[in-house]
Amino acid sequence: MSSIQSPPKLSLANFLQQPETKPASEYIKGQIYQKPMPKGKHSRLQTRLSAEINRVGEPQRLAYAFTELRCTFGGRSIVPDIAVYEWGRIPIDADGEIENTFNIPPNWTIEILSPEQSSVRVIDNILFCLNHGAELGWLIDPQERLVMIFRPGQQLDIKQGAENLSALGLLKDLQWSVSDVFRWLNLN
């Protein structure tokens, strides 16, 4: 993410009043950072992973994976590549429909690293989510073919190759290895 010129000491409220950008911008510690435009590998992994999570989570009303959802909490406004919410935590409006505004952290935040993206800033957002109640964070690195798994109060776990990945506990039917995830990039 590259920094965009922003007014000094821009407040979160003022940031949220600004028009949305494409790609999305995030508000972190008073600064605005624009995420890089997703490219082919990023887009494929994001689309397929969210579809697989929803294939298991939605019919049983366990969880739902949202792509590019603005999440505003703890003084930040971030847009994870995938934000997974347990079904009962999805904000609902008075009509019983999904709210437009999500002011709580996801249960599981997933980021897919783009070549021009700062891994430090992405990891900082994952840790921020964990520090505000998220249960799980993944950083998928397509170039290195690895997945970093973050859990509150635990050491970082780096998975590669045939190693199995852990999902949210309530999504026990999700069983993938790192190789399975990266195999989705091959359309043959």
Structure explained in plain terms:
Helix content is 23%, strand content 24%. The protein has 4 helices and 11 strands. The chain has helices at residues 12-17, 40-57, 119-131, 178-183; strands at residues 2-3, 25-28, 31-34, 63-67, 71-73, 76-78, 82-86, 108-112, 136-141, 146-150, 157-160. The strands form 3 sheets. The chain has a 6-stranded mixed β-sheet with strand order 4-7-8-9-10-11, with helices on both faces. A hairpin with a 2-residue loop joins strand 2 and strand 3. The mean pLDDT is 92.
Brief write-up:
The chain has 188 residues and is α+β, with helices and mostly antiparallel strands. The protein contains 4 helices and 11 strands. The model has no long low-confidence stretch (mean pLDDT 92).
